[in-house]
């Protein structure tokens, strides 16, 4: 038996498939969702989402959002989600540098908060991207 995992961002459905298991970072710690999990609504924390499907493990970077579990259907609403294998380390490094520059310039509180969020996202992408980067043989 599997569960249907659906990840939705402002851009639309990022992922939708049946999986064996999902390990989700929440504001109170990681939770593992298995088939027949109890109904649940919780806040998602930025971090690594681990998906187990066909006895393989996949990772995604997700930012804050909400998770709902009902009758073997998992809906994860996140501000941002990207598969680990899709992360460009060079682009994440550039985003980190750009955000750090904007934080130093701090033209307004709003700009500072935006840059701070972008910095957190870039650091998370770097951490997960480097962790899952294929090593040369």
Describe the structure.
- With 137 residues, the chain is an alpha+beta fold.
- It has 2 domains: 3-84, ATP Synthase, domain 1 (Sandwich), CATH 2.60.15; 87-132, Single alpha-helices involved in coiled-coils or other helix-helix interfaces (Up-down Bundle), CATH 1.20.5.
- Helix content is 30%, strand content 44%.
- Strand 3 and strand 4 form a beta hairpin.
* SSE series: EEEEEEEEEEHH
Largest sheet: 5 strands, mixed
Number of strands: 10
Q: Which term fits the overall shape?
A: globular
Quickly name the level 1 CATH class of the largest domain: Mainly Beta
CATH architecture of the largest domain: Sandwich
Based on CA atoms alone, the radius of gyration comes out at 16 Å
* Relevant CATH superfamily of the largest domain: F0F1 ATP synthase delta/epsilon subunit, N-terminal
Distance between the termini: 36 Å
Low-confidence stretches: none
Helix content: 25-40%
What do the pLDDT scores average to? 89
Computed structural class: alpha+beta
Tell me the strand percentage band.
35-45%
Specify the number of helices. 2
According to CATH, what is the topology of the largest domain? Answer: ATP Synthase, domain 1
Number of domains: 2
Strand order of the largest sheet: 2-1-9-8-5
């Amino acid at each position: 038996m599997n569960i249907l995992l659906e990840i939705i961002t402002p851009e639309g459905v990022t992922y939708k498939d049946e999986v064996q298991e999902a390990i989700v970072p929440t504001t109170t710690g990681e939770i593992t969702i298995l088939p027949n999990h109890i109904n649940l609504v919780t806040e998602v924390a930025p971090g690594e989402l681990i998906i187990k499907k066909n006895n393989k493990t996949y990772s995604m970077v997700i930012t804050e959002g909400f998770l709902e579990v009902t009758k073997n259907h998992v809906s994860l609403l996140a501000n941002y989600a990207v598969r680990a294998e899709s992360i460009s380390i060079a682009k994440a490094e550039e985003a980190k540098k750009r955000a750090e520059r904007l934080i130093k310039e701090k033209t307004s509180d709003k700009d500072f908060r935006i840059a701070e969020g972008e910095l957190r996202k870039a650091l998370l992408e770097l951490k997960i991207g480097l962790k899952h980067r294929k090593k040369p043989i």
